[in-house]
Amino acid sequence: MRLPRSGAGWTIAVFGLLALLLGALGLIWPETQLRLLGFEVPAERAPGDYTGTFLTASSMASFNMGVYYLLAVATEWRPFYRFTVWFRLVTFTVFTIAVLSDVAPDRFFAVAAWEGLGAVATAVGLWWDARRAPAATVDSVPGPVPATDAAR
Question: Which DSSP string do the residues of the chain spell out, in sequence order?
Answer without folding.
Answer: -PPPSSHHHHHHHHHHHHHHHHHHHHHH-HHHHHHHTT----SSPPTT--HHHHHHHHHHHHHHHHHHHHHHHHHT-HHHHHHHHHHHHHHHHHHHHHHHTTSS-GGGHHHHHHHHHHHHHHHHHHHHHHHHSPPPPTT-------GGGTT-
